[in-house]
Amino acid sequence: MSEAATRGPAENGLAEDRPAQSTSTDGFGVCSSVAVLRKVAMRRPGAMLTADHERWHYTKPLDPVALTAQYEVFAGLVAASGAEIHWLPEDDGTGAVDDLADSVFTYDPSFGVPGGAVVLRPGKPLRAGEAGLHADFYESAGIPILGRIDVPGLFEGGDCFWLDATTLAVGRGFRTNQSGIDQMAEIVAPLGVTVDAFDLPYHLGPDACLHLMSVVSVLDDDLALVHAPLMPTALYQRMLDMGYALLEAPAGEFAASLGLNLNVLATAPRQVIAIDGFDGTLALMREAGCEVTTFVGDELCIPCEGGPTCLTRPLLRG
Hints:
CATH class: Alpha Beta
Helix content: 10-25%
CATH architecture: 5-stranded Propeller
Oligomer: single chain
């Protein structure tokens, strides 16, 4: 376990003296999943702390004290990487906490592209209000919104990652549909970006969260962590053809973590933040030359099917 993962939030200087919300947004744009993370949008847990776990499809009731402590440690690791955190408001604009329990997972409701962002339309109905939250954030920050996914399109950020600087890999499944993919392709085409779609398996069905990034996590321009049994065959072959080395994480750890052993945030090429406790996966990345920092996520991440990548919305990489 990393030193940061063993400290409480107060010891990390975050619980009582939180980082101030950033106001500088000079420079934005993303065309990589692994280039140095310069700026990132995050939102602290709000409604999640009192959420009905059955309604939100969490695996158990959550411990709000432990969850908050784990989040503050994670936020400290992101800040320690050198990334500038831009905090989404913690209330609904009136001072009241909204009902968006999943909004802590800022990767899904929007997507960073060269020159701005695309506001998405989450496939989980309870997350619909998060698109407006992100749109308001971009408008207040002066970051251009280059497009929006509209009805009948569905598109979640977790189904999308950069294969290279001009290619987005997108998973077609329960959270992202063909209309959403077509709309995204139209939005990014003027940027010189193409969209390649790959079908995701049924796996645990529509109530579970299986994103493309549930089975692929890019660690460098030529390295990725994968769960091969659920990975689209065409994508697996495509990445090999592109020169990627694919590290196959232990299947037992994938099952035990509900797939979160694979959810790894790259803060720079081969510099990653991962959930602690999955030793085989961590060793695999370290043996491949990755610098891995960990935090405990048994309340914040695993019951809610959202990991380090999900907790961030990159605004500027490179």
